[in-house]
Amino acid sequence: MNSLEILEQLVAFPSVSRDPNWPLIQYVRDFLAARGIEVKLYPDESGAKANLFASLGPADRPGVLLSGHTDVVPVEGQAWSTDPFRLHERAGRLYARGSADMKGFIACALACLDRAVSRGLTVPLQLALSYDEELGCLGVHSLIKDMASWTYRPRFCIVGEPTLLRACIGHKGKRSFKAVCHGQAAHSSTPARGINAVYMACDLVGKLRQRQEMIAAGGLRDASYEVPYTTLHAGVIHGGTVNNIVPPHCEVELELRNVPADDSAAIEKGLREDALAVANTTAGASGTGRIDLTVAFEYPALDVAPDADVVELAATLTGHRERIKVGFGSEAGLFERDAGVPSVVCGPGSIDQAHRPDEYIERDQMERCDATLDALLARLM
């Protein structure tokens, strides 16, 4: 099967992050097993989702790993002109949810493994597929934890997020927080008898904005990024029940995206100090008010030397000498940090098309990715 035929199969699986990816993983497992390729699965506790690792070639040496995530973002509320889970081609564009992010790359990787079966590889060609990447790179950890103990870990990892096949050497890290503000209920006619948790949340957001302004004015900068400094953001707030009760509970979801040179742990420490200060100010005579700040998830920044071997490999294979840095995150930093596998982000399609209605990947990008992976095969024989 060629990559377009495989892509048509992959996008038909509505593997939105909230739903199981198991049917897609079964399809890939059966596709690879039919070609005699060894597969290992890493299911989650529910058994509805799984990571997949496959390797073709000798088992006694490091290989080159192609990595992608199987989950996609929802389509609800988006005005699609075609069925988002059925591939449609129009004017050289292949429309479907996940076509660019990132089932196009996965399809090319599977087609490459299909071609590689008869090539007699002397260096392993490997594939990693994960779940829940769109929720914060949550799923891949079980695979990476196992990989860290292997005798022969991959020599290189290419994460195929859409970069128009340019070598991405950097992206920001991310920490997502939940701040739970605990106040004290009272009748709204006597608000001083209570502790208003919504006020606490608003005061915390105010301090977050002040901290962001300081970072923007004088923090570390990297001009390679569209937003060249670390960002702080409040995205979700829930609090209160009815208007005549002083709200005793409010939750805020916060986000930190740091440039690689910045110290995310130090910024987190500052956020915790802000939360404590707000709680102490608004706790009232009873002293019962508090803010609990927890990390929902985190993944590290990626910061690869422009002349690193893995970057040179990607640039040579694609023919693109440009090195870029991107605002979105990926699993590449986790492969680097937790498994010690040198990684680069490089894949077909444009991130500008991801997560949008009528998401598409250019047919030309698929063809270029096929050619890139053919060049990789030639190096592994």
Would you identify the regions where 5 or more consecutive residues have pLDDT less than 50?
Answer: none
Number of strands: 18
State the name of the first-level CATH class of the largest domain.
Alpha Beta
Which structural class do the helices and strands define?
A: alpha+beta
Q: How many angstroms separate the termini?
A: 21 Å
Helix percentage range: 25-40%
Mind telling me which CATH architecture of the largest domain this is?
Answer: 3-Layer(aba) Sandwich
Q: What is the CATH topology classification name of the largest domain?
A: Aminopeptidase
Write the CATH homologous superfamily of the largest domain.
Zn peptidases
Side by side, the strands of the main sheet go: 1-2-6-3-7-17
Envelope shape: elongated
Strand content: 15-25%
Round the mean pLDDT to the nearest integer and report it: 96
* H/E topology pattern: HHEEEEEHEHEEEEHEEEHEEHEHEEH
**How many discrete domains?**
2
Tally of DSSP helical segments:
9
Estimated radius of gyration? 23 Å
